[in-house]
Amino acid sequence: GVHYKVSYKDNKNAGTATLTITGINQYSGTKKTTFKITPQRLGRVEVGKVADQTYTGKAKKPKVKLTSGSVTLKEGTDYKLVYVGNKKPGKADIVIKGKGNYTGTKTVSFNIIIPKLKAVKVKKYTDNSITFSWKKNDLVNGYEIYNSKNRRVAHVRKNSTTSATVSKLKANKTATFRVRSYVISGGKRYFSSFVKIKASTGPKATTITSIASPKSKQATIKWKKVKGATTYQVYRSTSKKGKYKKLTATKKTSYTDKKATGGKTYYYKIRVGKKSSLGTFYSSYSPVRSIKAKN
Predict the structure, then answer these.
(1) Is the dihedral angle over the CA atoms 127, 244, 279, 224 positive or is it negative?
(2) CA 271 to CA 161: how far, in whole Å?
(3) pTM for the full predicted model
(4) Region of 92 on the Ramachandran plot (φ > 0 left; ψ -120 to 50 alpha; else beta)
(5) What is the phi/psi pair of residue 42, to 5°?
(6) What DSSP designation does 122 have?
């Protein structure tokens, strides 16, 4: 500042830079010298975490964020990316290769995960089984259902089959099940995360123990009590295989139909209902019994 001043050229990027010293005041003339700016090694660069990618059967090429202090590196200028194993499920790698002001390589990994099943629901139920269904996924090879004890209770080996039945269950029971899909790649299975679903079996069916017409234009039906039942629905028809109409819902185990026509035969059946936190679940119908109403 008193005897000389210094200026620089090409001193921003990696390569050869020039330093020029120029005399001032009682000093005159210039002197030049060069020095090397070496590229920064990628090992000192911070690489942001790469998010999980969803398996689609196609190559996944997520971007990465590289920073050196407050400087964000630019792809194509400071580095290039090479992807390894990025089409199949499981672990994939991104090889980062430095260029320009950066040198060396750095590898980061990311996961390619199987997508969760969609539209998982209860398709139907009985007193000892529950059938689950879901939306088809063309990319997967199969599906599994697990019970609350982490035991596999159903295994579907075709992606075109979108339902499965869990059997040998107890009546009137609510439980949590978990459903997932899997892809077979390179002889190994890759699983999606589970979808949880609460489901319940229905109550056991009842049987009509007696049916009579003790009075004119009436029919009295009695049936067997079912443990845990919260309601009994009584249905009537004028033919065994005809259309049945619900007459009543009752907590009792008997009912008198007072709207019968004398001399006419009626057919009756009972359905058991059990209310739970998931709603009301019903049994199958009891065997049909018939009676001719008194005139």
Answers:
(1) negative
(2) 31
(3) 0.81
(4) beta
(5) -65, -20
(6) E
Residue 86, helix vs strand vs coil:
coil
β-strands 121-125, 130-133 pairing = antiparallel
Question: Which of 182, 190, 192 minimizes the C-alpha distance to 89?
Answer: 190
**Can you tell me which residue has the tokens 């994939």?**
92
Distances (CA, A) of 91 to 32, 51, 59, 60: 53, 12, 13, 11
How many angstroms separate the Cα of 8 from the Cα of each of 18, 23, 28, 99, 101? Answer: 6, 15, 18, 23, 18
Q: Distance between CA atoms of 74 and 31, rounded to whole angstroms?
A: 36
In whole angstroms, how far apart are CA 71 and each of 14, 45, 122, 200, 274? 16, 10, 53, 58, 66
- Residue 292 has which token pair? 């001719």
Q: For all residues of the chain together, what is the average pLDDT?
A: 96
What confidence score (pLDDT) does residue 255 get?
Answer: 98
CA-nearest of 94, 129, 81, 89 to 111 is 89
The answer to whether 84 and 92 have CB atoms below 8 angstroms apart is yes
Contacts of 70 (CB under 8 A, 6+ apart): none
pLDDT at 1: 78
pLDDT tens, 241-263? 999 999 999 999 999 999 999 99
Place of tokens 């009075």: 215
pLDDT at 222: 98
Strands 130-133 and 102-103 turn out to be unpaired
Question: Token pair of 194, please?
Answer: 């589970």
When pLDDT is averaged across residues 265-287 and rounded to a whole number, the result is: 96
For the chain, the first-to-last Cα distance in angstroms comes to 128
